[in-house]
Design a protein that fits this description.
Shape: elongated
Order of helices and strands: HHH
Radius of gyration: 17 Å
CATH architecture: Orthogonal Bundle
Structural class: mainly alpha
Distance between the termini: 53 Å
Number of strands: 0
Length: 101
């Protein structure tokens, strides 16, 4: 498969993630959009590692680090969303004003 197709897929995933972060007002959907953007970066790391014929597999190592960081981010983010939902009964970003002075 040509590299251009994979890069187009990755850019499409990243664009959908950007749209989801900017357009959505639900905190869970924003977290899912961030995960899409991180997966697009993972695809790029793996493809460029295969393209450069690297023996050290540094692209796959970075992809694994991103996956672990994304899992931790998702756990902390969902914990925050659940606590906000318990206190405010909503997960809408517009209606939550906990951080305002």
């Amino acid at each position: 498969m040509p590299v251009a197709w994979v890069l187009i897929l990755s850019s499409f995933l990243f664009s959908v993630g950007i749209y989801g972060v900017l357009a959505r007002r639900n905190a869970v959907l924003v977290l899912m959009s961030i995960e899409l953007m991180l997966n697009a970066a993972n695809i790029n790391f793996v493809v460029f590692n295969l393209l450069l014929h690297s023996i050290s597999y540094i692209g796959q190592v970075f992809a694994l680090f991103i996956i672990t960081i994304a899992a931790a981010e998702l756990g902390v983010g969902l914990a925050i969303v659940i606590l906000i939902f318990r206190n405010r009964s909503t997960v809408s970003i517009d209606e939550v004003s906990l951080m305002k002075w």
